[in-house]
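Input.
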Amino acid sequence: MFGFSTPALVLIGVIALVIFGPGKLPELGSALGKAIHGFRKGADQQPELPEKDKDKDQTKNEV
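Output.
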């Protein structure tokens, strides 16, 4: 996953547990999950260009 080996992920998890503690870790995981979900949702919703801007964009690609 993301180029990390299993021992590296375990080490990161242990370090996070030591730094943040067992009470705060679920809150951080939830916040991180919501942030990733929001980013993916925003990335999927690309705004549509008005017709006049589409023509300008096509002209730039042709040059």
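Residues 6-44 form the longest helix (39 residues).
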